Every structure is written in C-alpha cells, then in structure tokens.
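Here is a protein:
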Amino acid sequence: MAESKALDDMFHDMLKDVYYAEKQVLKALPKMAKATKSAELKKAFETHKAETAEQIERLSQVFELIGKTPRAKTCDAILGILKEGEAVIEDYEDSPALDAGLVASAQAVEHYEIARYGTLKAWAQQLGHKDAVKLLDETLAEETKTDKLLTQLGGTANSTATSKVAKAA
C-alpha cells in the first residue's frame, strides 16, 4: 500500500514545481523582449525578468524556512505555455499581431503563476509557515501587478494590430 502523503508534502512538491517554472520563465523573458516591436512591452519584459530573479531568491528562502534544499521539479504546464509563446514568435514574427500574441502568451504565464502562488500562500497559512506566507504574498502581488500591466499593454497591442490590418486592406 502506498504511503499516505500530507499537505506539507504537496506544498513541497508545488514549491519545486513553481521553482522550476520561474527558472524557465527567466530564460524565456529575454527572448520575448527581443521579439517585441513595442518599447513599452520590451521594458515590461525586462522589468519582469529582474522581478523573476528576485522571486526565485524568495522561493529559495521558502525552501529554507521549511527545512528543505531548493530543488526544481519539471513542470510540464509551464513548458507547454512557454512552447506556445515560442510558436507565437515564430508564426507571427513579421505580423502586426506579434505583440498582441506576446501579451497573450505572457498573461498565460502570469495566470499560471498567480494560481500557483495563491495556492502556495493558502497552504503555507494552513501549515503555519507565517514567514513563507509573507514571501509568497509578495510574489503574488508582483505577479498580479504584472498581469494588470500586460492587460493595459495588450489593449495598445491589439489596437495596433487591428489598425495596421485595416490600413493594409
């Protein structure tokens, strides 16, 4: 019979998952910044790259708080989301819709991260990891702020893509 696992095991597993995800996002953001045609979107990707590096450091602190070594566990979800983002860059490289697609891809990443950090924060509260709650909440707030910025930039990117198509017609 399989050993029964507790919430703290699941918390640790998800922590490893998001640690991996953040490291993959850190690698993807420079590619997205390079691909965009928008100066504002490029700046947003570069700013979020710096935030992501800090978030990885915070995750390392959470690992330490629970007495574990920071380790990554392959996250198929983030790999799929990032693969879709790479396809947008390849398929729309010369398209006025590129930036709209980059925003959509970046928001898919943010929504994944918001879901994960929200869950981790709730579990940390349940498990009594008060210091971890603070660290996870700080990252959750950054991810939410980035998502809101992307929504604003998406409006501009969508308008740009639409107006360039209308002019071409």
Summary: The two ends are 66 Å apart (CA to CA).
